[in-house]
User: Fold this.
Amino acid sequence: VKPKPGDLIEIFRGTYQHWVIYVGQGYIIHLAPPSEHAQAGAYSMMSVLCDMAVVKKEQLRDVVGTDRYTINNLLDDKYKPRPVKLILQDAHSLLGQELPYCVFSGNCEHFVTEMRYGKAESRQVGDSA
Assistant:
C-alpha cells in the first residue's frame, strides 16, 4: 500500500517507533532529534537525553533505511483528520525549525498526531499532551 499525503507512517526501530508524516512524491516530514536516523540502533536511545529536535523533510526511503514501516493513521477512529491541505501547509511551515523535544511529552509521535488531528498524543508513552 502506497502512502497518501497526510498519512502517518510508523517506522520500527527495534526498541521504539519513529513517526513521520507523508507529504507526497516519496517525501516525509518529521521531528528529528540529533540521534534519529536509519540504523541508529542503541544510539537512538540518546534521544531521551535531547531537549531540542529539528523539523526535517527527507526521502521516506532514506529515513526508513532497512527498518520495517507501516502506514498507521492510529487515531482516525478517535478524531477526524484535518484537511490534507492544512496538514501539509502546517508541516511545511515548520521545516528547519528547532522545537523543544521531550520523549514523554513532545516526541515525534506527538508531532505527527498534532499535524494530522490537531491533538498531540503518543501511545508509546501512554500519555497525551
Notes: The beta strands are 8-12, 17-24, 27-32, 52-59, 68-71, 98-100, 121-122, 127-128. Confidence is low (pLDDT under 50) at residues 39-47.
